[in-house]
Write a structure and sequence with these properties.
240 residues; DUF4197; TAT_signal
């Protein structure tokens, strides 16, 4: 029983370190506690798991991507069109907007990203479980340090696993078919060089940007009220 209590206390310190509420602890001690607590429900791994779950739940809601201008997914920019707002790309987009043929496609692309987000929890959990938290002190100092670390460590892996989910969603909602149909009717679509691969990659890139933006928000909110967020878990650990 004594050993169990000691372990529980270590778990509590781990959660405190991860959430930035162990201000009285030296950074090294907080980091050690954080590492001990991973997988125990109060460590940084748990914090990131909760943050990613919360972000994905929000973005899986109908219209979530399109409704937030900060993360709204735009039409793919490919080839030598680059990221320019003017020039050929600007003329093509202006022509498309005047014709009224792009609005519905843009919304559907965002809906596809939302569908993919709703299926993405396992791949984010796997990425979190595969992290090494040796850089815990620097992670603890930042309000969204865990999110930054997850992205810098796992972005390529997450991209490769998120891309098929996006591809399936784009297919399911008829985005590829829509582009094919538009290309037959409008030359500017053909000029833009859109194809299945470029559309999928662009939506995946922008979708991950939006997801990580929301994960960071969730992490920051979690850290603002760490006691309230882990209160129930503390009670469980202490057997209360």
């Amino acid at each position: 029983m004594t050993q169990q209590i000691q372990w529980n206390r270590r778990g509590i310190l781990a959660g405190a370190g991860a959430l930035g509420i162990a201000g009285f602890l030296p950074t090294q001690a907080a980091a050690q506690g954080l590492n001990l607590g991973l997988g125990k429900g109060l460590g940084l791994g748990s914090l990131l798991g909760k943050a990613t779950d919360g972000a994905l739940d929000k973005l899986a809601q109908p219209g979530a991507f399109y409704g937030d201008e900060d993360i709204r997914i735009g039409l793919p920019i490919v080839g030598n069109l680059g990221g320019r707002s003017g020039g050929l790309f600007g003329r093509l987009m202006n022509a498309g907007n005047r014709l009224g043929v792009l609005g519905d496609v843009t919304r559907t692309i965002n809906d596809a990203a939302g569908l993919a987000a709703g299926e993405a929890k396992p791949i984010f959990r796997d990425a979190i479980n595969g992290l090494s938290f040796e850089d815990a002190p620097s992670i603890i100092k930042e309000d969204d340090g865990g999110t930054q670390y997850l992205r810098s460590s796992s972005n390529e892996r997450l991209h490769s696993r998120f891309e098929p989910l996006v591809d399936t969603a784009l297919e399911k909602l008829g985005v590829y078919k829509s582009f094919d149909g538009l290309a037959e009717k409008h030359s500017f679509i053909r000029q833009a060089g859109w194809n299945r691969q470029s559309i999928n990659r662009s939506v995946t890139d922008q979708g991950l940007d939006g997801i990580f933006s929301y994960v960071g928000q969730e992490e920051r909110e979690f850290r603002k009220n760490p006691v309230g967020n882990i209160g129930g878990a503390l009670g469980d650990l202490l057997g209360k």
